[in-house]
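Apologies for my clumsy wording, but are you able to produce some protein sequence, whichever is easiest, and the tokens describing how it folds?
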Amino acid sequence: LRGWVWEAGDAVVRHRVATELMPTGAAPDRGALVEDLLGCEPVRRWLDRLVPDFRFSALHGSRPTAFENAMGKLTQLGLRKGMAELDDRVRPFREWLAEALEREPGHAFAEFERALVAGLLAAGGYGEDPTVSRVLERRRRTLARHAATEDYDVYARAEDFRGIPKAFAGRPILDPGLLPDGAFRLPWIYDLVGQSAVLPDLAKRERGRAGDAIGYVLDDRYQALEPGYGILRAGKRRYYAMGWDVGLPGWTGFPLSGRPASMLVQRMVWLARFPTARCHAWFTAGLRHLRSFRTGRGTYRFPREYLREGASGYWVTGAYMGLMANRRTKRALEVESTFWMLLLEGAGS
């Protein structure tokens, strides 16, 4: 199957097959593969979207030009630290993160911004950057401490609060104690992105902390929390929507449709690096479900909504899952599906 994907794939797929599915030294000239990768149309388009704008709405948002989407997509297309053009475009964000870490929080989403940027930089291979590493370590400790409490009673009584905006009426209110000194104690999806990227290189103790955070997520009580968490009071009568939980599609069963379907493959890939997750019933059920899309010749063809590529949306919700430059053929969907399946099947080896 690996050989079939290689032959049927284009620049992005071939580069990812060579770097992630082939033994070192077994692939053709990797320099040529990188050259082809950096010259292909999807990579050029997404590189142009990675521009240094550090407003909250430019770092986080559904537009493809938001940092989280452009950087996330580029990592998905196979770009990594050491590729000069990516390094140049990422440098301003690394500098911003270093400066942001030294400033006072300033607002309720300061840590969220740092976790988002650090997680995406780690996914791009910059996990050893001292500032990125520092942010990820802080998040690991915060999440591991909360996981150790096994506390899933995270909501407060709405009647104890005043001045809740009408737009938030009916939404659950998170316990303000979850945000002591700006350190939000619940995991964000960006934590999963970053921690999964650096996990293989962590010392045993730090791997354990990351695993504890994942163990908290792999619990019925966590998965039963309100999707998007809810709202949080930060300051006198100031309320914010505090979302981006680590919801797992298929937790209550398959098949899937709509937005959960577009998140399944991506979230399984991230969680596959955690031994606790790989042996969990949710993960094995997900693999079994994806295997049901095997074709008669042994390749895979997932439903299109599992690998959608939208004009806008959030990369962390599977909005931009395309790999092939030309996706208007059944062959493209089959190539992409088979690549993801090979990656998932081999992630624990």
